[in-house]
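Annotators were shown the component list below and the corresponding predicted structure, then asked to write short factual statements about the assembly.
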Amino acid sequence: NFMLTQPHSVSESPGKTVTISCTRSSGSVASNYVQWFQQRPGSSPTTLIYEDDQRPSGVPDRFSGSIDSSSNSASLTISGLKTEDEADYYCQSYDRSNHVVFGGGTKLTVL
Amino acid sequence: EVQLVESGGGLVKPGGSLRLSCAASGFTFGSYGMNWVRQAPGKGLEWVSSISRDRSEIYYADSVKGRFTISRDNAKNSLYLQMNSLRPEDTAVYYCARDDSGYYYFAYWGQGTLVTVSS
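Structure shown to annotators:
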């Protein structure tokens, strides 16, 4: 099985842009779709990005996803940060054996 | 409106068993693959198991393989997780989640049910 590594925490000021990385340990990040989830304290996760860069309806275009084969990583970028964006963010992908892996999560602080 | 409602959680002793249920409504349950995902207190998300819409494909995380069994009843719009030989490290909130793409796009999640394994 592979691992997805995220920074434990990031912080940025309101109105700024932050990028959260998600690095795949083995296998190509381009081979299997990456999803991103947001989880606020006490709530269930919600999807921000699916299939690498697709936004579900209702998710603001301040949220964007991408993958970079050269670094074998995926990224979630949040622009125009708002205090309500404070949450935990998780990347997720899978492998050919249909094992699903989540990243360890990144706590975003907007200060 | 899509709804997923988990139930069956509770306190169980190590080595015990528990059966979780996930009641689905607001969509054609039999048209979607389903998953269980758990989250230990203060920890991150961990995928547990998946089942295809027709039960032909079932997968488990290594941490639960041989102890947990996922199943579904499309006629009852329900997903299940039979958990045997429970360990303290299985303590977590268990979520059911709908796969909207076949590529593990968990578009909808339930509110979760807490399982506590302790003597």
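Statements collected:
1. Strands of chain A lie at 4-5, 9-12, 18-24, 35-39, 46-49, 63-68, 73-78, 87-94, 100-102, 106-110.
2. Chain A has a mean pLDDT of 96.
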